[in-house]
């Protein structure tokens, strides 16, 4: 009997070519599209909500339906005017590499199943270890679905190494600008609320060293066990990098685990300016970086690096009977022993193929360009009578608000005005530009990590913001 999923070679080729054409045309026409898609649940239900069909539908008909209804109803995170959250400016080589990994359905959990997949993960992790001046021979790491899973893996490891089986008295410290995935990880790991100390940041949104020292001393005096500090190397809100050397000094003195969440900003190590800002990152015990952010990879690929690979294997290695024939020797790494997942997709391939194809210098050039573009954006804003910088350009992120010199607007009016500007820009679908809150102020945030974004894309959007601002003020009779 033929498989119920059987297609002839010609049918597969015809179908595959259509999908490749869709992807290529998307890359080619991307800038001519609008980056924002908006739809209600009711609108989506009216298109998609059907019972699962018992009988077959022609493959081309299903593909045409997806091309018409699914692909247009999603934001384009690779668009040069996608300024919000952390955009995903992918690259075509990695996209095709992902297609290869999926097409061959490569299992990347154990060496015996795919030695090449395991080897490429070792090789690309070694590239990253060298970038961040981590020990290559003793150090190690693992590719994950993203920064959230990398942070969870890191904190699970830190708890095991520093606390053993009893963590009932342990305390962990992070700043009020730390990424929310760290709080999720802490919650998943079963820490109680009183075991988590969120330290206020200073006026530059950096970890307050004095407040941290006070909190650690207080916990020690009250009989608790400080065990971990989580620092940020590029916060999502502002791109701010915590004082890494000062935090490392505290960790060394107090025998604490030092985890750095560099999911967003870690890639800046490839630029001269970024590497200066990230000084001290090499002193971490564990480091999260997210290649699907500023290393220009498609979703999903996060990464955890550690100073000692045995920390991971000692934390996650299990030896069930059904895996006894695939253990191999110590040099043949089974990555299911290094993290939570047993079944793992082949994430290393896209990272490997893109760096081999473009060369590391292309990535350095792109990241340097992004940082310079944010600096130019700051210069442009400072020369205007309408804009106020709230958080200056840092690792390609800048926060600002519309606050014209010739208007005497209250803080409440400024918050409402900037929120409305953002909403109108998003409603126009011309750019994805949303707000955040800094120092109790509603501000507009730009994340400029797309190498296809030009200063003209930025200024066109700022001009659009000013048009909307004047409309709102006119409605208010201001």
From TrEMBL:
The keyword Transferase does not apply. The modification N6-(pyridoxal phosphate)lysine is found at residue 293. The keyword Ribonucleoprotein does not apply. InterPro entries: Aromatic_deC, PyrdxlP-dep_de-COase, PyrdxlP-dep_Trfase, PyrdxlP-dep_Trfase_major, PyrdxlP-dep_Trfase_small. Its cofactor is pyridoxal 5'-phosphate. SUPFAM superfamilies: PLP-dependent transferases. Pfam families: Pyridoxal_deC. Signal peptide: none annotated. One of its GO terms (molecular function) is carboxy-lyase activity. One of its GO terms (biological process) is carboxylic acid metabolic process. Keywords: Decarboxylase, Lyase, Pyridoxal phosphate. Belongs to the group II decarboxylase family. This is Decarboxylase.
């Amino acid at each position: 009997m033929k498989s119920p999923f059987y297609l002839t070679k010609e049918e597969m080729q015809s179908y595959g070519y259509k999908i490749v054409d869709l992807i290529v045309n998307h890359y080619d026409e991307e800038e001519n599209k609008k980056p924002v898609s908006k739809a209600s649940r009711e609108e989506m239900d009216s298109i998609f909500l059907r019972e699962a069909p018992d009988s077959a539908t022609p493959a081309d008909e299903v593909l045409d339906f997806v091309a018409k209804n699914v692909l247009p109803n999603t934001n384009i995170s690779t668009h040069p005017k996608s300024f919000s959250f952390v955009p995903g400016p992918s690259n075509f080589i990695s996209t095709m590499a992902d297609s290869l990994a999926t097409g061959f359905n490569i299992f990347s959990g154990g060496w015996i199943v795919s030695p090449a997949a395991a080897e490429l993960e070792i090789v690309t992790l070694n590239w990253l270890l060298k970038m961040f001046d981590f020990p290559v021979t003793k150090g190690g790491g693992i590719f994950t679905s993203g920064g959230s899973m990398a942070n969870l893996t890191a904190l699970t490891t830190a708890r095991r190494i520093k606390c053993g089986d009893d963590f009932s008295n342990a305390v962990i410290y992070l700043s009020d600008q730390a990424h929310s995935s760290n709080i999720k990880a802490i919650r998943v790991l079963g820490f109680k609320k009183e075991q988590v100390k969120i330290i206020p940041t200073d006026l530059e949104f950096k970890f307050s060293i004095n407040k941290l020292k006070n909190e650690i001393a207080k916990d020690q005096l009250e009989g608790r066990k400080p065990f971990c500090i989580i620092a940020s190397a590029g916060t999502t809100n502002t791109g701010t990098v915590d004082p890494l050397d000062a935090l490392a000094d505290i960790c060394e003195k107090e025998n604490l685990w030092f985890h750095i969440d560099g999911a967003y900003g870690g890639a800046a190590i490839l630029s001269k300016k970024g590497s200066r800002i990230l000084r001290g990152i090499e002193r971490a015990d564990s480091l999260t970086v997210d290649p699907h952010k500023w290393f220009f990879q498609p979703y999903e690929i996060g990464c955890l690096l550690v100073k000692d690979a045995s920390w991971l294997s000692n934390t996650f290695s299990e030896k069930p009977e059904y895996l006894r024939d695939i253990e191999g020797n110590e040099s043949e790494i089974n990555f299911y022993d290094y993290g939570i997942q047993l079944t793992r997709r082949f994430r290393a391939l896209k990272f490997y193929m893109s760096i081999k194809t473009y060369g590391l210098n292309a990535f350095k050039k792109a990241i340097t360009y992004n940082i310079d573009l944010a600096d130019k954006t700051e210069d442009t804003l400072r020369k205007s009578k309408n804009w106020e910088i709230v958080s200056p350009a840092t690792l390609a992120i800048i926060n600002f608000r519309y606050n014209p010199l010739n208007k005497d607007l209250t803080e409440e009016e400024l918050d409402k005005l900037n929120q409305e500007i953002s909403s109108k820009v998003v409603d126009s679908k011309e750019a994805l530009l949303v707000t955040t809150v800094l120092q109790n102020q509603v501000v507009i945030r730009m994340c400029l990590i797309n190498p296809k974004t030009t200063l003209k894309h930025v200024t066109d959007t700022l001009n659009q913001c000013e048009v909307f601002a004047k409309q709102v003020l006119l409605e208010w009779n201001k």
